[in-house]
Design a protein that fits this description.
The strands form 3 sheets. Strands 1-2-5-4 form a 4-stranded mixed sheet, with helices on both faces. A 4-stranded antiparallel sheet has the order 3-6-7-8. Strand 10 and strand 11 form a beta hairpin. The chain is an alpha+beta fold and 232 residues long. 39% of the residues lie in helices and 24% in strands. The chain is built from 7 helices and 11 strands. The longest helix has 20 residues.
Length: 232
């Protein structure tokens, strides 16, 4: 005998799932038709942990159509990804949804407090990813510094010098600059350029603009608002 409140619960969960899928893949939501490689799942999990957290729906195609999962294998693939291919450990929760007679596995990851989180690739290299819109991008050295500095309890001290002024004056006239461009105009080594960019990002003086082709940096017109790179 099926009780009324059980029917209501099932309907509520179906509405919840439908609403999620209708949003499409975005900053905090990713679809996976199936899980065939724990390493690939590890990238998404670390990207969520390094950014604003997110949900992974396994058994949903990229176009939002329901494929469903066939067994508990997907859960064990996710668990394997966390155990073997992510560091530090990522905490995740799962829920199963049944809709259209098919089962969907929802994996939720919260934003982590031990960034950077990294995943291990096929060559044994540990790489940090972050979520940008519906993509998982590789974090550059500037972003890695931002995370590490923000996780420190003693804060960050920024001292403005001629180098910082040169950068800001350039951005006021040219609009944006790359790391290599900054090194060139300031005549400083990469490690110092990276540290300066990271500090100015933390204080929201500048913002990072990521893409698959690389990173550029611009003045932040609204220092008090959320940074365009989620999780910074």
């Amino acid at each position: 005998m099926i009780l009324a409140n059980e029917i209501l619960s099932v309907r509520n969960m179906e509405r919840y799932l439908k609403k999620l899928i209708e949003e499409g893949e975005n900053q905090k939501l990713d679809f996976k038709y199936c899980v065939s490689d724990s390493r690939k799942i590890a990238r998404t999990l670390t990207a969520f942990a390094n950014s604003d957290g997110g949900r992974l729906l396994i058994g949903v195609r990229d176009n939002g159509s329901i494929a469903g999962i066939r067994s508990d294998e997907e859960y064990y693939m996710v668990d394997t990804a966390v155990e073997l291919f992510c560091r530090p450990e990522i905490i995740f929760t799962t829920r199963q949804h049944v809709t259209e007679g098919k089962t969907i596995l929802e994996v939720e990851v919260q934003r982590g407090d031990k960034r950077p989180y990294q995943s291990k690739d096929e060559n044994g290299k540990w790489i940090a990813y972050f979520r940008h819109n519906d993509q998982n991008l590789v974090a550059n050295r500037v972003l890695l510094q931002v995370w590490r500095k923000k996780e420190k309890s003693d804060g960050v001290l920024v001292k403005f010098s001629k180098t910082e002024s040169t950068l800001l004056d350039y951005l006021k006239t040219k609009g944006s600059i790359s790391l290599s461009g900054f090194k060139k105009i300031a005549r400083i080594p990469a490690y110092r350029a990276e540290a300066i960019l990271a500090n100015l990002i933390i204080f929201r003086v500048i913002k990072m603009i990521p893409s698959e082709k690389g990173f550029s940096y611009e003045l932040n017109p609204e220092p008090s608002t959320q940074h365009p790179v989620a999780g910074i």
